[in-house]
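Structure (tokenized):
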């Protein structure tokens, strides 16, 4: 079972009904004496003046028990004790599950050992020729760049192949003809015009050609916590190939904040398959893509065989190249651990 922070707007309940918020750490150990603030809002009155705030600490069993009447729903949970990553949960933003009955379970991960990592928000797209269409492109996590001729990378930690296909148009023939006469679109090339107004289906393939390298989707994700993935990458479960498809009319299927991946690359192994050396990386959120390009955020540990991916946000080992634009510099300013 996936280990989520479970949270949902409270159902409409009878007056005086008891509810429980169960708090555990990342090992599922109950957390006692942890102060929390719960905000309840009336379902029929959105005014702040109608809200009810509960400030209370968990008991010896890690549970916080409270009552709410039938008109109230849980609208916010705030937990920020020393030694833990904070939670500021808004059920309308991340409406997750109830763990059973009138009990909600929330995981509060500990701050264990944040370390410097190589981290960057990567953006590759067809228009500025940082990404080729329907061609494999390698990306070097250590240097933060694609392999030649699209960058100066040396080793491909991951390879992408983006294959967009135009399936038609999102406008009627009359509307397209009118837009072609519009001075704003007069300088658009045929390809650019199609990118703007076309209906596209796009396939993204990801591969790891070297043996024992690969990617695995995280089975644990703390959606309402600033620290969302487990502290360490797993040692097994890695797959060498992935394939995703998107339709430009349908949009993305999964919420970006509720998914993550771990990667193992540059792997050396014995003939038996026992790993001798490998490097570990996490991707926070999905690898987002469309018919125009792809983007993702990665965190890579520079030390072989070290699975720790708990990032110290003040110590990014990757730096923007001298002369980078302000926009490019922002790609290195990752503020989530």
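Design, position by position:
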């Amino acid at each position: 079972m996936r280990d989520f922070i479970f949270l949902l707007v409270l159902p409409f309940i009878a007056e005086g009904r008891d509810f429980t918020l169960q708090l555990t750490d990342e090992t599922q150990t109950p957390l006692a004496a942890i102060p929390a603030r719960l905000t309840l809002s009336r379902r029929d009155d959105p005014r702040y003046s109608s809200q009810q705030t509960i400030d209370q600490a968990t008991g010896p069993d890690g549970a916080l028990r409270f009552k709410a009447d039938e008109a109230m729903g849980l609208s916010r949970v705030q937990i920020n004790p020393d030694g833990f990553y904070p939670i500021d949960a808004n059920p309308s933003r991340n409406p997750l599950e109830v763990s059973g009955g009138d009990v909600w379970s929330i995981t509060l991960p500990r701050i264990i050992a944040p370390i410097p990592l190589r981290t960057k928000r990567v953006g590759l797209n067809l228009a500025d020729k940082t990404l080729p269409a329907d061609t494999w492109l390698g990306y070097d996590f250590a240097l933060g760049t694609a392999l030649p001729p699209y960058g100066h990378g040396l080793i491909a930690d991951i390879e992408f192949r983006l294959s967009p296909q135009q399936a038609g148009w999102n406008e009627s023939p009359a509307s397209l003809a009118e837009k072609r006469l519009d001075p704003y679109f007069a300088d658009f090339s045929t390809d650019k015009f199609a990118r703007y107004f076309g209906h596209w289906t796009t396939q993204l393939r990801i591969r790891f050609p070297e043996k024992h390298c690969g990617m695995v989707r995280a089975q644990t994700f703390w959606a309402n916590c600033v620290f969302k993935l487990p502290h360490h990458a797993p040692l097994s479960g890695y797959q060498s190939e992935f394939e995703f498809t998107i339709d430009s009319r349908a949009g993305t299927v999964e919420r970006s904040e509720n998914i993550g991946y771990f990667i193992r690359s540059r792997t050396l192994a014995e003939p038996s398959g026992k790993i001798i050396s490998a490097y570990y990386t996490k991707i926070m959120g999905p690898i987002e893509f469309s018919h125009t390009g792809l983007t993702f955020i990665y965190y890579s540990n520079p030390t072989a065989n070290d699975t720790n991916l708990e990032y110290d946000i003040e110590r990014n080992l990757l730096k923007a190249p001298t002369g980078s634009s302000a926009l490019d510099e922002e790609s290195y300013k990752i503020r989530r651990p």
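Reviewer-requested clarification: Residues 3-107 form a domain with the Immunoglobulin-like fold (CATH 2.60.40.1120). The first strand starts at residue 3 and ends at 4.
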